[in-house]
Amino acid sequence: MNYIAQLAASQNLMRVLLVEDEERIAGFIRKGLTEELYMVDVARDGGEALDFAASAGYDLYILDVRLPVRDGFAVCRALRQRGDKTPVLMLTARDAVADRVQGLDAGADDYLVKPFAFQELLARLRALARRPPHITDQILVVANLTLDTQRHQAQRGQQLIELSAREYRLLEFLMRHRGRVLTRTQIAEQVWGLDFDAQSNVVDVYIRYLRRKIDDDFEPQVIQTVRGVGYKLEA
To answer: What is the pLDDT of residue 195?
Structure first.
């Protein structure tokens, strides 16, 4: 395992939802942020963004303005109406003052105009992350399985479950996306990151490890295989 992967495995990664419909830009930002040890999900339109935001706890949103289904202004307003106080950085090709004002009035915390230097994006994310933290789920629950993300402690009913660092990261990722079908590639990119070999069966191997610890001796079983696609975790 390289140094970056070791460091990522030992830390509770900052979770970012990137909402960008242009595949080239989304890929560039995601790759750069992953190399900087952020955990990144990508939504391609405004509707998907709101679904992602409702199903997982994020530390930051990077939100493009020009989106299908619902534009970035509408998404930002909807998040704030839900009571979601997660910092929002809006990205857009628009540089008119009126557009920046509209974004900030919708509830955005900062605004970055395309094209931008990636180092400036990182600096703005660091500045947003230094603000007083919003309240996120510290205890994740699915059926009688609980995960205390502050203590890094898993429990099934009254029984504590001992997990390796990698098993813990896998379980936390599944629980933060409970109810959603996750492909093997999605799981591998977030849990293994730069250390992942696309030809390996490491995801399936670790799912088996996790099942032995949290499912085999308990009811209901919560890790479900979606044949031909991947896995999901729900009661």
So the answer is: 55
Can you tell me the distance from the alpha carbon of 176 to that of 168, in angstroms, rounded to the nearest whole number? 12
Q: Within a domain: residue 134?
A: no
Specify which residues 214 forms β-bridges with: none
* Residue-averaged pLDDT of the chain: 84
- Are residues 37 and 63 part of one domain? yes
Query: How many independent structural domains does the chain possess?
Result: 2
In a domain, 61, yes or no: yes
Express as a percent the part of the chain with pLDDT over 70.
87
Query: Which pLDDT value is given to residue 1?
Result: 36
For 90-99, the CB contacts below 8 A with 24+ separation are 90/63, 90/64, 90/65, 91/20, 91/62, 91/63, 91/64, 91/65, 91/116, 92/64, 92/65, 92/66, 93/66, 94/65, 99/65
* ω into 133 cis (within 30 of 0): no
Domain coverage including residue 113: 3-129
Q: Which of 80, 97, 129 is the last residue of a domain?
A: 129
Tell me: do 7 and 122 sit in the same domain: yes
